[in-house]
Design brief:
The protein has two domains: about 35-420, TolB, C-terminal domain (Neuraminidase, 6 Propeller); about 430-500, Sandwich (Immunoglobulin-like), CATH 2.60.40.10. The protein has one helix at about 10-25, and strands at about 35-40, 45-50, 60-65, 85-90, 95-100, 105-115, 120-125, 140-145, 155-160, 165-175, 180-185, 200-205, 210-220, 225-230, 235-245, 250-260, 265-270, 275-280, 290-295, 300-310, 315-325, 325-335, 340-345, 350-360, 365-370, 380-385, 390-395, 410-415, 430-435, 440-445, 450-460, 465-470, 475, 485-490, 495-500. It starts with 7 loop residues before the first helix and ends with a strand. The longest helix is centred in the N-terminal third of the chain and has 20 residues, at about 10-25. Mean pLDDT is about 90; it is low at about 1-5, about 10-30 and about 420-425. The strands form nine sheets. The protein has a four-stranded antiparallel sheet with strand order 1-28-27-26, with no helix packed on it. About 5% of the residues lie in helices and about 50% in strands. With about 500 residues, the protein is mainly β.
């Protein structure tokens, strides 16, 4: 069979395309940005939780300190205070509605779920006694708000006592339409029994209208916090958080298994210096994967943490991330029990914090790792796999993306599905950033590649730019090419990037 042409130009094109698509199939499995949007005002906004909704749209929750732009209806006019901030997008990522919820003091939403009746249940904290908030017990209360599909409040309730720290982080819905909420409390009155009046992990069960069925604190005389809760296969619950030791700023992972009535069946208390778990999932084999943060005992910097626990509560293994100044914050499990972890950390390519996405095998080996960000700070707090097998992400940015307002904005990012077949273990000799980018692509190369040529190809394989890398950190001006997906080739290695408006 004749493959090569007698035409030397066609032969060069054929060789390039063979190399191009070979590299693309192997290396392009990392998800790429399909679209991104900024929401906020002149001050700080935080996108703390995001989900895809049953109408194929998205809802993001967090808080805002702004009183302008899309946060003009902020109830809080006190400098440094905030309102809960809710953004609803359509499947076409158009803004359907934005709501500021709360009162004249600080209010914040930590997480959101869609309920069985296609409404939204928000979990967080309130320090207000006016506006949208009623019946605050004093200090800060845990706050649950149920919204309809238009963002209007169906009901809202405060939970806690007169202590200064009653907080709800996460709520899940049970099969009987009731809800289980987790967080922490230092109250010993109102809805809370806590004789020591120290911060303790706190679980409350409420019915479909928000009325309390039972409330319980855990931890005896040890300060603790709960961050996540999941249902288990036996009808109970698994809770993840941390336990402080000896009153100092030293903490251990604390994993607690409860039965359906809230009674403790087993617990894991593990750590060496400072560890905590923010999110946990159950794998197909019954074991659990928890992710969070640890402090490296050598360099004393915070980094990501992954643990695996058997179904009966035995710690199987522990893995520490290789990125510093960051943490893992969210996790999704694939059908083959591999998992994707989201968080943030210092990107060595630009020495700033970026969204961090890591895929691991079911035994904790890294399959691929990808940063997403701009010139300044990005932190990823929440993500979820979407119906098209891509991902929707929410966090903060201070980079000047299109639509950026100032300080920190909520940054919502849609990633493509994972593509490719296998991981290429070849070490890259260059890095690119920011990615996506608007005008300038920075390229950091090994010294051996200085004064070497580069080429940029479109998704169709057309050469659109070329030049020489004149230093270890070079800048490529992209003003002459339109927005889209491109590939930078240096030597035999190729890296994908996205140009945006």
């Amino acid at each position: 069979m004749k493959i090569m042409s007698s035409d030397p130009i066609k032969n060069k094109i054929f060789c390039f395309l063979f190399l191009f698509f070979s590299v693309f199939v192997i290396q392009a499995q990392n998800p790429s940005i399909e679209w991104q949007k900024c929401f906020g005002g002149s001050y700080a906004e935080y996108g703390r939780s995001i989900i895809q909704t049953s109408d194929a749209g998205f809802i993001s929750v967090g808080n805002t300190q702004s009183i302008d732009f899309v946060a003009v209806n902020n109830h809080s006019q006190i400098e440094g205070s905030s309102d809960a901030f809710v953004v609803k997008l359509s499947a076409n990522y158009l803004t359907e509605w934005i709501k500021c919820l709360g009162g004249s003091n600080s209010d914040n939403i930590n997480s959101v779920i869609e309920t069985s009746d296609q409404c939204f249940l928000l979990s967080g904290i309130t320090g207000s006694i006016d506006g949208d908030v009623t019946n605050n017990h004093g200090g800060t209360d845990g706050w649950i708000v149920k919204l309809d599909t238009s963002g209007e409040i169906i009901w809202q309730k405060c939970y806690g006592g007169t202590g200064s720290s009653d907080v709800i982080f996460k709520t899940i819905q049970n099969y009987d339409e009731s809800f289980i909420c987790t967080g922490y409390s230092n109250s010993n009155d109102g809805d809370v029994i806590n004789p020591e009046m120290i911060i303790k992990g706190w679980i409350i069960k409420i019915d479909s209208l928000g009325d309390i069925e039972w409330s319980r604190c855990y931890g005896d005389t040890i300060k603790s916090k709960f961050y996540d809760i999941i249902p288990t296969n036996d009808g109970g619950y698994l809770i993840a958080g941390k336990k402080f030791l000896n009153g100092f700023n030293v903490a251990n992972i604390w994993i607690v298994k409860l039965n359906g009535l809230g009674n403790m069946e087993w617990q894991i208390d593990y750590g060496s210096y400072y560890e905590e778990i923010f999110s946990i999932k159950q794998l197909a084999d019954g074991s659990y994967i928890g992710i969070g943060e640890t402090v490296d005992s050598v360099v004393h910097l915070n980094t990501g943490l992954v643990i695996n626990i058997s179904e009966s509560g035995v710690l199987n293994w522990v893995k520490q991330g290789d990125n510093y100044w960051g943490r893992y914050t969210s996790i999704e499990v694939d059908s083959d029990s591999s998992f994707v972890i989201g968080g943030y950390g210092q990107n060595e390519a630009n020495n700033t914090s970026d969204f961090l996405f890591v895929k691991m095998s079911n035994i904790g080996n890294i399959i691929w790792k990808q940063y997403y960000g701009g010139l300044y700070t990005e932190e990823l707090y929440s993500f979820q796999q979407t119906s098209d097998e891509g991902y929707i992400l929410s966090g903060i940015t201070s980079s000047e993306w299109t639509g950026y307002h100032g300080d920190y904005d909520v940054w919502i990012v849609k990633l493509s599905p994972e593509t490719g077949i296998s991981e290429n273990n070849q070490i890259k000799n260059f890095q690119i950033y920011p990615n996506p980018t608007q005008e300038i692509l920075k390229v950091k190369v090994d010294p051996a590649l200085v004064n070497q040529p580069y080429q940029i190809f479109s998704i169709a394989g057309q050469l659109v730019l070329s030049g020489i890398l004149t230093s270890e950190t070079s800048q490529i001006n992209l003003n002459s090419i339109s927005e889209g997906v491109y590939f930078l080739q240096v030597g035999t290695q190729t890296e994908k990037f996205v140009k945006i408006k």
